[in-house]
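Good morning,

Attaching, inline, the backbone tokens for the sequence recovery test we're adding to the shared suite. The designed sequence is right after.
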């Protein structure tokens, strides 16, 4: 392993992985390959901008020729695929791009990678492939029951990876991370969205009763989980990366308001997301057996994240313009007009 292609490395989790690997492994050449969609952001890579062991390539994982040329130019021997359309609400509004990137893009990377003779292929997946987990904790052998177009596209991508392992003997591994939060997260996902809205005294639209449960994982713990699986995971296997910190959305919202010193009157309960999974929860024993351990508790991580968004308005204020505002209008205008109650 020497020349590692990190696709989607300008996004939230991919950039945390790139920053980590560039700094920890000067002997590796990290090539970030990213289309720079609305979610990709070169500011996320500023800390490694001048690193001699990092290169950035702007291209699309569904573009066979661009993938081929990059694998060849940089003698790539390893692929870590973070590239994806990643937001459930956008997948409900417009599923097309999800199929193109999360399914066809994964297939393209696998197929060109196989022809090029790459070694390890790591696919970054999600707990959402398991669907709604009413009780207990998902283990890696549980069936896939995805419920949103996003989750279905990620499940399909994973199944392509499995087929390349079984049929062509490719060296593949998969990670399934839980809900991730931390610095540099695009402010459409729950935590950065609510922090940045609350900082501007704007309403926080909680879907339904807010009693949905998510398992929260700090982005640096997610990146270290991917690193451990890349280096030590067994070929053909999948590994859950779980924070094992389960919280109701409404409790996360209260905690954020408290950290920010903002009033609870900002909370608006709005009509629920269609097909909304009530609970995600995973068991991380398989990854722990490889030596991985979560470093950040949710309390520590949330406080650090709030502080980062307070200190780095330069990073998120320029995102909350243009296309972002169009999306905000489509997603929230009617919902907020139908807000039924206000928590106190
Ligand atoms: P993100 O939306 O912040 O970043 C995605 C990145 O992929 C962006 O830089 C974007 O420009 C790039 N990209 C999108 N389409 C591309 C294409 N066709 N070709 C090349 N690059 C493309 O996403 P994220 O939250 O960092 O998630 C990264 C990965 O982790 C995804 O695969 C996601 O499914 C998975 N995941 C995310 C979470 C979470 O809570 N955010 C949890 C578990 C798993
Ligand atoms: P999100 O960050 O979109 O991640 P996911 O849907 O992948 O879990 O949402 C986390 C939870 O927060 C989810 O249950 C939906 C809820 N949510 C809201 O209640 N309001 C919002 O505006 C957003 C973006 C999410």
């Amino acid at each position: 392993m020497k020349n590692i292609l990190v696709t989607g490395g300008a996004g939230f989790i991919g950039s945390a992985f790139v920053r980590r690997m560039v700094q920890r492994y000067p002997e590796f050449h990290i090539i970030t390959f990213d289309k720079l969609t609305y979610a990709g952001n070169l500011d996320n890579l500023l800390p490694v901008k001048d690193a001699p062991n990092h290169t950035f390539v702007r291209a699309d994982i569904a573009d066979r020729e661009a993938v081929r040329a990059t694998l060849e130019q940089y003698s790539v021997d390893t692929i870590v695929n973070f590239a994806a359309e990643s937001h459930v609400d956008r997948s409900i509004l417009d599923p097309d791009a999800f199929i193109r990137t999360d399914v066809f893009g994964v297939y393209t990377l696998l197929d060109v990678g196989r022809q090029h003779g790459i070694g390890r292929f790591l696919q970054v997946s999600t707990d959402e492939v398991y669907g709604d987990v009413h009780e207990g904790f998902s283990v890696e052998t549980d069936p896939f029951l995805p419920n949103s177009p996003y989750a279905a596209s990620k499940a399909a991508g994973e199944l392509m990876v499995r087929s390349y392992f079984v049929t062509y003997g490719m060296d593949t591994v998969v990670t399934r991370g839980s809900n991730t939060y931390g610095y540099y997260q695009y402010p459409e996902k729950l935590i950065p969205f609510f922090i940045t809205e609350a900082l501007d005294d704007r309403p926080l639209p909680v879907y339904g009763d807010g009693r949905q449960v998510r398992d929260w994982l700090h982005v640096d713990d997610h990146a270290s989980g991917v690193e451990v699986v890349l280096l030590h995971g067994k070929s053909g296997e999948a590994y859950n990366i779980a924070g094992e910190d389960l919280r109701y959305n409404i409790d996360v919202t209260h905690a954020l308001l408290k950290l920010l010193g903002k009033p609870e009157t900002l909370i608006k309960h709005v009509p629920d997301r269609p097909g909304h999974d009530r609970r995600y929860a995973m068991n991380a024993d398989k990854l722990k057996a490889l030596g991985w351990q979560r470093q950040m508790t949710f309390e520590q991580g949330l406080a650090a994240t709030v502080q980062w968004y307070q200190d780095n308005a330069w990073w998120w204020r320029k995102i909350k313009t243009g296309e972002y505002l169009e999306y905000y209008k489509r997603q929230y205008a009617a919902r907020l007009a139908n807000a039924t109650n206000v928590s106190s």
